[in-house]
Amino acid sequence: MEQIVISGTGVFTPEQSITNEELVKAYNEYAKKFNLLNKQDIDSGKTDALELSNEEFIFNASGIKNRFVLDKEGILDPEVMHPILDKRSDDQPSILAEMSIKAAKKALDNAGKTPKDIDAVITACSNLERAYPAISIEVQELLGIEGFAFDMNVACSSATFAIQAAADMIRSGSAKTILIVDPEICSGHLDFKDRDCHFIFGDVCTAMILERKDTAESNNCFEIISTKCITQFSNNIRNNFGFLNSAKKSSPLDRDLLFMQQGRKVFKEVVPMVSQLILEHLNEEKIQTDEIKRLWLHQANKSMNDLIGKKVLGRTPEEYEQPNILQDYANTSSAGSIIAFSKFSDDMNKNEIGVLCSFGAGYSAGSIILKKIS
To answer: What is the dihedral of CA 20, 24, 27, 31, to 10 degrees?
Structure first.
C-alpha cells in the first residue's frame, strides 16, 4: 500500500483575544439589563431571569481561559453581543480564504513545498462562509494551484475526515500532494447571550500538507498508518442555519439558527463512542495502547478529553501525552486537534506512534494513527 505522510502543518491565530474575565463582564452587563427591562414578566413568571456567569463556572465546565477571535469589540458590546465583520465585495478575498492562505503558507513552508507542488485543495470546516463558489476553489486560485478543489463539512470531525479523503485520493493516484485547510470562525455561530455556551468557541485556521512518503522532504513527517471514521445521527449538537431559511417563517434571530447542544447528553454518549473507536482502530492495526506516545484529541471540553484518554490508555494520561490547548484557544471545532498536533509533535522520536482524533456533531468521529518517520 502507498505510504502517505503529513509533511507540514500551519496555524493562523487571530490577533485579538478575549479572556474569561472580559467575556463574563460583557455577558453579565447584558443579563442585568435584560432582567431589568423584563422585570414585570420575570416577576409574573412569563419570562425566566438570566443567571449571571462567572469565571470559575466557565473554567470548571470547560477548561477554557481564553479564546482568539476576529472581532472582540462587537462580542464584548452588551448592545451587540456578536462579532462585527466587514462585508466584502465579490472581487475581494473572502474571510475564510484569507485565513486559509495565511495558514497554508505556514504549512507549505513547514513541508518544504510551493503551490506548484499541490494538486488539490480541500477546505474542511464546520462554518462555511457561503454555499458557492467553493472556498477551496478560491484558495486554489489565490495560491495559484492547478488541479481541483472542494469543500466538505462534517462539523468538528471535518479535518480528520478530510485526512482520510486526501489519503485515499493520493493512494488512488488522483492527486499526489494535497493541501487541507480548516478555517473556523466559530464566534459567528455562537449565541453570546446564552450563559450555558457563550464561552465555548474561538476562531482560528489550520492547514496540512499530505503527500506520498517518497516525495516528502520535511524533517517532521508523520506516516498515516491507518484512518477510521464513523458517524451516528444525533440532534444533541445542532445548528439549523441554512439556505432554506428564507423559505421558512423564521427570523435571523431565531435561537436555533445558532449553535445549540445538550451538553450532558453529548458527554455521556460521545465519550464511550470515541473511546471505543480509538481502541477498535488500534486493535485492527495490532497496536498496543502502551505503544501510544501521544493523543491529539478534539479540543471541546477538558473533562471529556481527560476521560477519553483514561479509557484509551487505561490510566490518567500525563500532560505531555495528551496535549491540551483549550485553555488558550477554546473550542475551535475541526481545527482543535490539528492545533494540538501542530504544536505538540516536534518533540516525538522517530517511529513513535500517536493518535489524532476529532469528534462532534453528527455524531461524527475520525481516528488517524500516525507514526513519526523523520
So the answer is: 160
Catalytic residue among 125, 156, 186, 205: 156
Secondary structure of residue 18 in the 3-state scheme: strand
Of residues 44, 51, 45, the one with CA closest to residue 24: 51
Buried b (16+ CB within 10 A) or exposed e, 287-302: beeeebbbbbbbbbbb
Q: Where are the domains of the chain?
A: 223-372
Average pLDDT, 10 consecutive residues per value, the chain (374 residues): 93 98 98 96 94 96 97 97 95 97 98 98 95 97 98 98 98 97 97 96 98 95 98 96 84 85 95 98 98 97 96 96 97 98 97 97 97 96
Amino acid residing at 209: I
* CATH 2.80.10.50, domain 223-372, yes or no: no
Q: Is 156 a catalytic residue?
A: yes
CA atoms within 13 A on the CB side of 44: 5
